[in-house]
Amino acid sequence: MLSYRDLITGFKKLGIDQNKPVILHASLSSFGEVRGGADTLLGATLASFHSVMSPTFTYKNMIIPETGPDNNGLEYGSGHDLNKMAEFYTQDMPADRLMGILAEKIRLHPLAQRSTHPILSFAGIHLSEAIDRQSLEEPLAPIQWLLDQQGYVLLMGVDHTSNTSIHLAEQKAGRKSFIRWALTPHAIYECPGLTGCSDGFNQATDHLAEITIMTKIGDATIQAIPLQEMVDILVPIIQNDPFALLCEKATCPRCQAIRNQQNNQTSEHSDD
Ligand SMILES: [Zn+2]
């Protein structure tokens, strides 16, 4: 069974500057058994890194309208049953289960601050500047702030399909984003700049191998990737191949929307 000390020793092996901010994505179960569970993992994380942030995205409050903009990776009018179950977003809505228990533990920490985006919120400790940077128009701005401070992505027992920051590289490469709608007690918010699908992001693994610091803690592989270098590597890859990092599922609405847009642009150019 892993102890608090095992976790601290493991994080130290990464050899990254403790004062650099990190965005983390973790699977507690990937470590094997940890004495004290998620609280121990959180404690060891906070003892090892001064400022941490995690996505605390919420999906239960999303609704699907009857109509909307074209090629938006969404089947309009398909949400009758889901819309009925949609919950109002409030600042204390738990992070979606997909974010993992550590994200939820960070959100609940007494020092944590959570941004107010009704779908793509982040919770951070000692990161109020990053959290305050977010707006409805710029949902990924907190990650940009971390990048500007030479921060790291920390993947704990999860792979790049959990690496939200790759969406920042997509945005910088000019890739299409999406519009989604969120139910709040005040209004239905139209949210621009929503990210695409991350199911294909493991295609980035080889490209990032050279800048990735890896260690093992228990059964979990821990990867630390410097944000600036990661984005610098991935942006030209996406620009050179507009289908890079998309998933292979023919039925994936968002990846297909990106392919459609690209194919339309190509055919418009060939008409010139
Ligand atoms: Zn996809």
Detail the topology: elements first, then pairings.
Blueprint: H1 4-13, E1 22-26, H2 37-48, E2 52-55, E3 62-63, H3 80-85, H4 101-108, E4 112-114, E5 122-125, H5 128-132, H6 141-148, E6 152-156, H7 166-172, E7 178-183, E8 188-194, H8 205-208, E9 213-217, E10 220-226, H9 227-240, H10 253-271
Parallel strand pairs: 1-2, 1-6
Antiparallel strand pairs: 2-5, 3-7, 4-5, 6-10, 7-8, 9-10
The structure holds zinc ion.
Zinc ion binds next to α10.
Q: So what's the oligomer here?
A: single chain
What percent of residues are in strands? 15-25%
Mean pLDDT across residues? 96
The Cα radius of gyration reads 19 Å
Cofactors, ions and other ligands in the entry: zinc ion
Order of helices and strands: HEHEEHHEEHHEHEEHEEHH
Keywords:
272 residues; alpha+beta; 10 strands; globular; binds zinc ion
Descriptive overview:
The protein is of the alpha+beta class and 272 residues long. The protein has one domain (4-264). The protein is 34% helix and 18% strand. The chain contains 10 helices and 10 strands. α7 crosses α9. It binds zinc ion. Residues 197, 199, 246-247, 249, 252, 254-255 line the site of zinc ion (ZN).
What is this structure, in a nutshell?
The protein has 272 residues and is an alpha+beta fold.
